[in-house]
Amino acid sequence: MNPKDIITVDVPLFIRLLEYAREDAQTDMDLHDVADNIISLSSTGKTLTMDDYSSIIGSQEDIAEIRAWQVRAGIIK
């Protein structure tokens, strides 16, 4: 069992998550959603790897759909 809010990620995933935060995340909620997904996936105590990336971030189609909705809603440009 993993203590609440303790996560372990390998270095390649850590670097990719930093890239996502800098380049792809559009809102603070994007980052909160990523954090929630990481915490949830870490509940068993396993080290997360790039194999977990799509579960953490979502698919590119999901991201594109969310961005399109945010543009239509005037949240982002």
Walk me through what this model shows:
By secondary structure, this protein is mostly helical. Helices cover 60% and strands 0% of the residues. It has 4 helices and no strands.
Provide a compact summary of the structure.
This protein has 77 residues and is mostly helical.
* Distance N to C terminus: 42 Å
Largest sheet: none
> Could you say which overall geometry the principal axes of the C-alpha atoms support?
elongated
Task: Give the percentage of residues in beta strands.
Answer: under 5%
Report the uncertain regions: none
Q: Would you list the SSEs in sequence order as H and E?
A: HHHH
Q: Provide the residue-averaged pLDDT.
A: 85
Helix content: 55-70%
Total beta-strand segments: 0
Helical/strand content category: mainly alpha
Rg over CA atoms: 13 Å
State the helix count: 4
Question: Which key terms come to mind for this protein?
Answer:
single chain, 77 residues, mainly alpha, 4 helices, elongated
SSE layout:
Blueprint (H helix, E strand, L loop, with lengths): L10 H14 L3 H14 L11 H5 L2 H13 L5
